[in-house]
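REQUEST ID: PR-0412
SUBMITTED BY: lab tech R.K.
PRIORITY: routine
TASK: structure prediction, single protein chain
INPUT:
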Amino acid sequence: MWTHKPWQGRFLPHPLPPDERLRAYASHCNAVEGNTTFYATPARSAVASWARQTDPDFRFVVKLPKTITHERRLAGADEEVRAFLDAIEPLGPRAHALWLQLPGSFAPDDVPVLAGFLRRLPTIHRYAVEVRHRAFFEDARSATVLEDVLARAGAEWIPFDTVAFFQRPPTSDAERDAWTKKPRMPRRSRALTDRPIVRYLGRDATASTVEGWRHWVEMATGWLREGRSPTVFIHTPDNADALALARRFHDEVRAGVPDLAPLPEPVPAAPPTLF
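STATUS: complete
OUTPUT:
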């Protein structure tokens, strides 16, 4: 996300060499979704560059490659897993969680495969799982079985909240595109670990996005008061204002938890002028 074109020159300085772009992003937010790793395991040298550009407490939630989760469906992928874990090793403590985003066809009957996969993973990492089959949200028994498997592995269940997005028909090209691609799932709010992770999708209209995240402001505030350390990712269909929205969300949570540290002071997107 730190190379998102609409942010360049607006939120982030432009032009910037590739090995400085993440550093600029990290001056706005203290966490990032590592979504590009879904499409290919990154070069270890690239990951080392990510580590150099961020502080040790910066959070990467890094998605496992689709060859593991979607093509192999967590079976017979030991070689791919080893290659991925070796590639991300330079992140060190920045690897906040390794993220298994499972396909919508991954159903309750597949949970034993997930259980076996999680048991084989090294315990030096934390893991988080995102499921998209509706049975996990609508059938209490299926949800309980999945929660038990995740709890035994110390893994978190990542909710992807699209409730606000689907409340009214799309009004822009970006919203129409997302309308056909994003999952329609009931909202789920229960944290399984001390590191809950939330993905929230709002609308291109800021007012609708802010109204839709009220639930998560309350949840994040409560988790922090309980001693948990949540990570919340704010999305919109075009993500044009996502950086500013993420900072606004953080400010709203901080209003209820004053001890929460502020986000960094952003690097100016353009040099100061005399007039």
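NOTES: The domain at 1-158 is CATH 3.20.20.410 (TIM Barrel).
REVIEWED BY: pending
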